[in-house]
Amino acid sequence: MQGQSNEQSSELDKEWMKLIESARNIGMTIEEIREFLAKGKE
Known about the structure:
This protein is mostly helical. About 75% of the residues lie in helices and about 0% in strands.
């Protein structure tokens, strides 16, 4: 996140936390979330 201000980083972190919380609310485990994110990098 080079070049981003702390405020932008903080906002991005909040968005990620909302996404992770939503995934947990539908029953995904932390490991399933990690696997899903890793597939996106391929």
